[in-house]
Design goal:
single chain; Dehydroquinate synthase-like, alpha domain; 16 helices; two-stranded antiparallel ribbon; six-stranded parallel sheet; alpha/beta; Rossmann fold
């Protein structure tokens, strides 16, 4: 008998001009803290749309860093407290959305950021999330991934009140992205979908969103290859990204993320690209545990073999390729840390440090 839970309290509003159409329904309180990065919210047009319909007071925090730290989030939370903000509008890619979630907790809990990993008492401020990239799916997850210097890695915290109250998804906000950023974030979305489908926590319910998302993502492969990213292709990628978020909200991610984090923290790899480095080996590893599921992934993507998948990742990630210098000792340290994570525990076969060391060596040496 099947047993599972499926929890998604976020209201999803998807389509063209959904923020403007929200009108008086956009505010979730009396005064908003608008959380953004330094430029994406303005460049995409999302901030202008929000301000054109927002009734009531607001203050803007536009200093979210790439790969935000707890201290960066605390800065925004202190502004929310000072200005008596009672809800948050988060605009941007994964960094602003994740930072906004941490701010929403810190604004109402007297804690240091690192203490959030042990939980909190008071419910986070409500969030309206507006993604400007098609990658993280953070607008529909209960996770915030922060850079933790004490542990020299990126690390996710989670809680049911980190689900945004509402997510507004408009593909036009991704139109200003470069091809390189579009590809990096698209690969991130694919990693969520594939990892969720191959996770040992997958259920028949999470499979529905994972499989649909993989199929939709597959329709955009040619656009990603050529760089001819029409609005229809961007809509497909945004939908796939959202479905990836819905999937990992139920399953979590697996060892692809655990291996990708040190490439981001120590070597400056964009998060999606770091995941993409290991995706082909991840499928090869899983073929030994769930060959029928791996075959389904390839079929939905329209790819004839695992080698064709590896060639696709190599082709997509060739532009803006990153070169790193890493020793065998560093690789072993990355693998040992990854093997101890929940990401590894959620992976089929629970890979050992030796297995993860081999995957790292095969892909970055």
């Amino acid at each position: 008998m099947r047993e599972f839970t499926f929890f998604l309290p976020t209201k999803i509003v998807f389509g063209r001009d959904v923020v403007r159409k929200a009108g008086e329904g956009l505010p979730l309180g009396k005064k908003a803290l608008i959380v953004t990065g330094r430029s994406s919210a303005r460049k995409s047009g999302a901030l202008d749309d929000v301000l054109s319909v927002l009734k009531g007071e607001y203050v803007i925090f536009d200093r979210v860093e790439n790969n935000p730290t707890g201290e960066n989030c605390l800065e925004g939370a202190e502004l929310a407290k000072k200005e008596n903000c009672d809800y948050i509008i988060a605009i941007g890619g994964g960094s602003p959305l994740d930072a906004a979630k941490a701010m929403a907790v810190l604004a109402v809990n007297d804690k240091r950021p690192i203490e959030l990993y042990q939980g909190w008492e008071h419910r986070a401020l409500p969030i309206a999330a507006i993604p400007t990239t098609a990658g993280t799916g953070s607008e529909v997850t209960p996770y915030a991934v922060l850079t933790i210097h004490e542990e020299e890695t990126k690390k996710g915290l989670g809680g049911p009140d980190l689900f945004p109250a509402v997510a507004y998804l408009d593909p036009k906000y991704t139109a200003s992205l470069s091809r390189e950023v579009t590809v990096d974030t698209a690969v991130d979305a694919l990693s969520h979908l594939v990892e969720g489908y191959l996770s040992n926590r997958a259920t028949s319910a999470s499979d529905l969103t994972a499989l649909q998302g993989i199929a939709v993502w597959g329709t955009a492969i040619e656009a990603l290859r050529t760089g001819e990213l029409t609005m229809e292709a961007r809509e497909d990628l945004l939908l796939a990204s959202m479905l990836g978020g819905v999937t990992i909200a139920q399953t979590g991610t697996t060892f692809v993320h655990a291996l990708g984090y040190p490439l981001t923290y120590f070597h400056g790899y964009p998060h999606g690209r770091a995941n993409g480095v290991f995706m082909a080996s991840y499928l090869e590893y899983n073929h030994g545990y769930a060959p029928e599921r791996v075959d389904t992934v390839l079929e939905l993507l329209g790819l004839p073999s695992l080698e064709a998948f590896r060639e696709l990742m190599d082709e997509l990630l060739a532009e803006g390729a990153y070169q790193i210098e890493v020793s065998e000792e560093q690789i072993r340290a990355y693998a040992e840390k990854a093997a101890k994570t929940r990401n590894a525990a959620y992976s089929r076969g629970t890979p050992s440090a030796d297995e993860l060391t081999k995957i790292l060596k095969d892909n970055i040496l």
